[in-house]
Amino acid sequence: MAANFIDLARTSVEQGLLFGLVALALTLTFRVVRFPDLTVDGSFVTGASVFSAGAFYYHAPWLAIPCAFIAGMLAGLTTGVLSSTLRINRLLSGILVMTMLYSINLRIMRQGNLSLAGVPTPLDQMDEWLGSTSYASIAILGFLALASALLIGRLLGTEAGLFFRATGQNPHLVETLGRRPEFFVIVSLAISNGLIGLAGAFAAQEFGFADVNMGIGLIVSGLAMLFIGMSLIPRGGIAYMLAGALVGAVVFQFLKNIALRMGLAATDVKVVSAILVIAALAIRRIRSADASPHEVMDLEKR
User: Given a cut of 70, is residue 290 above it in pLDDT?
Assistant: First the structure.
């Protein structure tokens, strides 16, 4: 029993750190600049497909990792341009890019599913360098998640970061200060989807394949991680907000893995994700019932 629990906890932490990159990315778009980005489902697969194609067809797995990040950035940049420059509805912009990415990802992989069996990946090589321990991947992904959180925190703590946060709170204020809020929206979308593309690249290494449908429902899972973290760490500054994203990702994966081990079919995971989002929102709504009007408005914005 103890061994099973340890294995469950290890797997959950490993997956939580991996998908914590998605939660951090959504923190930047959903919580900071208040942009409902639906590009996520597509840019995650783009990162996985770019990495897998680079490793499988061109035998350049290390180079494929930054390429996956750049590909994700381009996807987010496209959504930002469609929304901010062409004035297309924000939700529709994400849907359009996500739809285009489906065909693009098929072109990149040259098929719907690309296996990495027998292909040496950077994560495998780093596992060997660290002694092939069962916790090597946790150390690697933990470093990646922590570094990403620190970089985002550093960005939001600068003068430019103030404009990012003001863009979500009061874009008219940004305009009065002589800056264009559209610029900060585009940059945040590029950074966010770059992180998601990077998560896709490491997910392909973890799972051993890239599939054109592997990103379906990721936005719901990401929001579940985000809202769980917001419920567990409801107050605080930038550091608390980013820590909540990572904690929420680990807790979400732990709950999901418990459900799977209790006999829930893997095809029902999306239902669990949606239920967790609803539960987290309900908890926040109950908490806001006892809050002051100002606090309620803040909860609604967040």
Answer: no
